[in-house]
């Protein structure tokens, strides 16, 4: 809902939102409300004349939505108009619940296949497996049907049914199943276990209703089952946030009662509020590491920022997203809603970590990140220096992991997924997820599986050379350097087979994750990936070193 318009169209379209039946009231010309009322009156006349005399019919709903879109272009991307048909998406963001069948899908060529099945879901109860291909839904073929359309068909009110014909990806046998939709509750704690023999691990994927209580229960279980646990990792990587109240509950697990976690300040001063911990914590002393990356946003940053400002634990990984804005939903007519940014939030030290300044736009309408020169310094409880305006900077930075181009191609072409499916049907069982390894024989079998399959790709170096050639042609230098460029191009040509072997470790890991997912669902995938996770291993190392841990939390750290 974020189409861009030129300035003239944007001005006209924006006015389309502002229909009013009321007349003008007497306001001072300098009064902002007079300007609003004046332009509402102008718009009413404008739309009336346009609708009456324009040569073609203008569909009111379409025109109005364009007006709304244009107005929203002047706000931040988190302020949005929610139509009646999209209310379920808004509800899902708050509750983690939706009506459906409990499976993920992906389109590959003509057909759409099941990629993940949630434990205990209708699909799981019906015996549907990852890799199964959807042939028909309620008797209608879904060949060449867009993935988005199939996704909509799978969702629906709990208790309604869906007749689906599945095709086995290995045997091609077709099986009809009646799937009864249920309320699916996506668990905010996707994994809880031991990352090593002495370090606990909790992965939290979203801040929805009661998610704080679920994290609390997971931590209690870890302590109960592992009394010798020396530290715990709270993984908020990729967590886009959610409910602010739940962030306070999560922080309260490790932070004492009556401690300020976050405050909000906005235009409506009556809504300004301080959020403090309300309950007794579970553990205020166990060494704690919070993992973040650039996709950790909003409520995730509230937790990470509070833990950092209160010197309760270490933030490890990469800088967080930098979303310091709070949204509230407002009811609109005809069962629609406005999700509007009403405030900024501030961590206990007083910093707002909003990274992009939407309130000051450039002449072309673009927005910029807060420059380093304007970032202010704050201090944590122990006197450590932290800054605002750019997300949460980790106490210990870990370089992000990038996968190779050949791996990207194998994933994109679904070859890793398809091989895992065939592996599953030819191996009745495997070792526990955390210890499963793919043998060299199996990897050689994967190489044979790729024979005659197209997974071509361009390396970054090849892309750079291609860009240079195009620039040289435009600037009339190409003829002078063409021979040298051709020689360089020949030297840079990659051998797919060699690239496969050069990145064998990485590709083997991706295969192991996908295969364990077949036998142990998402829990298995995560358990296997923890073994080589660089952020997790950095956190384990830090939590096992009490001297280094305390030093990093000290104001005189070096």
From TrEMBL:
GO terms for biological process: proteolysis; signal transduction. Residues 471-514 form a coiled coil. GO terms for molecular function: endopeptidase activity; serine-type peptidase activity. Residues 99-169 form the PDZ domain. Gene3D superfamilies: 2-enoyl-CoA Hydratase, Chain A, domain 1, 2.30.42.10, 3.30.750.44. GO terms for cellular component: outer membrane-bounded periplasmic space. Keywords: Coiled coil, Hydrolase, Protease, Serine protease, Signal. The keyword NADP does not apply. InterPro entries: ClpP/crotonase-like_dom_sf (IPR029045), PDZ (IPR001478), PDZ_6 (IPR041489), PDZ_sf (IPR036034), Peptidase_S41A (IPR004447), Tail-specific_protease (IPR005151). This is Peptidase S41. It comes from Chitinophaga flava.
């Amino acid at each position: 809902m974020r189409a861009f318009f030129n300035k003239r169209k944007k001005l006209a379209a924006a006015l389309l939102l502002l229909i009013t039946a009321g007349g003008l009231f007497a306001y001072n010309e300098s009064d902002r409300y007079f300007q609003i009322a004046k332009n509402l009156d102008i718009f009413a006349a404008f739309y009336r004349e346009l609708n009456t005399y324009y040569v073609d019919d203008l569909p009111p709903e379409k025109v109005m939505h364009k007006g709304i879109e244009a107005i929203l272009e002047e706000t931040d991307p988190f302020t949005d108009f929610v139509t009646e048909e999209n209310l379920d998406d808004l509800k899902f963001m708050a509750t983690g619940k939706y009506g459906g069948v409990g499976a993920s899908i992906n389109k590959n060529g003509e057909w759409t296949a099941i990629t993940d099945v949630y434990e205990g879901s209708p699909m799981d109860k019906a015996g549907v497996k990852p890799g199964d291909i959807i042939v028909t839904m309620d008797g209608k073929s879904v060949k060449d049907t867009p993935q988005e359309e199939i996704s909509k068909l799978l969702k629906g009110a709990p208790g309604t049914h869906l007749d689906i014909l599945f095709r086995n990806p290995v045997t091609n046998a077709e099986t009809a199943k009646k799937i009864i939709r249920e309320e699916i509750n996506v668990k905010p704690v996707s994994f809880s276990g031991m990352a090593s023999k002495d370090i606990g691990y909790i992965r939290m994927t979203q801040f929805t209703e009661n998610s704080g209580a679920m994290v609390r229960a997971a931590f209690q279980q870890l302590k109960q089952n592992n009394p010798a646990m020396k530290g715990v990792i709270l993984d908020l990587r990729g967590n886009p946030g959610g409910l602010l109240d739940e962030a306070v509950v999560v922080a309260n697990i490790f932070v004492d009662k009556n401690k300020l976690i976050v405050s909000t300040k906005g235009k409506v001063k009556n809504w300004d509020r301080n959020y403090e911990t309300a309950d007794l914590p579970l553990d205020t002393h166990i060494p704690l590491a919070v993992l973040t990356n650039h996709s950790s946003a909003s409520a995730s940053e509230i937790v990470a920022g509070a833990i950092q400002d209160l010197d309760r634990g270490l933030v490890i990984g990469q800088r967080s997203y930098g979303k310091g804005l709070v949204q509230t939903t407002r009811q609109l007519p005809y069962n629609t809603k406005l999700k509007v940014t009403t405030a900024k939030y501030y961590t206990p030290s007083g910093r707002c970590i909003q990274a992009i300044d939407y309130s000051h736009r450039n002449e072309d309408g673009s927005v910029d990140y807060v420059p380093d020169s304007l970032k202010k310094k704050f201090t944590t409880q122990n006197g450590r220096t932290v800054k605002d305006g750019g997300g949460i900077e980790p106490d210990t930075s870990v370089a992000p992991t990038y996968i190779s181009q050949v791996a990207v191609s194998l994933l994109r072409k679904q070859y890793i997924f398809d091989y895992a499916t065939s592996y599953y049907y030819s191996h009745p069982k495997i070792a526990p997820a955390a210890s499963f390894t793919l043998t060299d024989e199996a990897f050689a079998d994967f190489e044979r599986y790729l024979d005659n399959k197209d997974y071509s790709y361009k390396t970054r170096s090849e892309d750079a050379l291609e860009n240079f050639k195009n620039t040289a042609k435009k600037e009339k230098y190409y003829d002078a350097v063409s021979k040298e460029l051709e020689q360089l191009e020949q030297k840079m040509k990659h051998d797919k087979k060699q690239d496969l072997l050069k990145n064998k470790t990485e590709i083997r890991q991706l295969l192991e994750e996908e295969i364990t997912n077949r036998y142990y669902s998402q829990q298995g995938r995560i358990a296997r990936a923890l073994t080589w996770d660089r952020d997790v291993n950095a956190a384990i190392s830090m939590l096992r070193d009490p001297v280094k841990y305390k030093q990093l939390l000290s104001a005189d750290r070096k």
